[in-house]
Design a protein that fits this description.
- The chain is of the alpha/beta class.
- Helix content is 33%, strand content 20%.
- Helix 1 packs parallel to helix 2.
- 39% of the residues are buried.
- The structure holds iron/sulfur cluster (SF4).
Amino acid sequence: MKISEIFYSIQGEGKRAGMPSFFIRTNYCNLRCLFKSGNLCDTSYTSWYPEDMKNLGETDIDQISDKYRKILCRDIVITGGEPIMQADELLSLCRKLKNINKDSYITIETNGTLIGDFINYADLISISPKLKSSVPVNTSYERMHNKGRINTEVLKKYNSLHKAGKFDIQWKFVFTSEKDIPEIKQLQSETGFENENVYLMPEGISKKDLNKTRSETVRACLKYNYNFTERLHILIWGKKRGV
Ligand code: SF4
């Protein structure tokens, strides 16, 4: 499996924030986010620059599982990049991890453009659909990103499987300004997800950025009845790898 990094830290965002978690970050992404602030995504070493020498590269699923066996915490977070680009490997990995610890709680973090059979082993699907604010304007990726960033059919499928009781779900949106809200509402009416599962997260990859965008994000949460989520790992460690 193409892996960027594996580490043990706390979950920084969403419903499971603060929980000690075993993180598996896959390499490569099918999108290229670039926000109006000029920030790339906080894991650009998996998307814009996947050839980064610090990435682990091709890693055997048994090796990943052995690392988990040594930690054996309840929460496992499989994130990216976009983990579902490696759907077959993801299925094998989830199956193996559940075999090691049947009480584990597996979160899959995805941009929501792809789906696969791994859902049979997932406890929480954390979807972060990419809004217009993420389009890398005036770059060679602008068209590809804009065309691929929303897959309504896949989003609907996730929501109906959640409603059927298959897994818990959260919808995490990077909030850049109130201009993002009509797009979130539009997606919500097309897909049917509920306010109680929506989290707005201030855009930023440093403590300084988050301090700038946090209060506007909280105001929007209060106005539109959404949840706020901090980005704890950035507040604690800044833009550092492996945390
Ligand atoms: S979808 Fe996620 S990993 Fe991919 S470029 Fe955007 S923020 Fe980065």
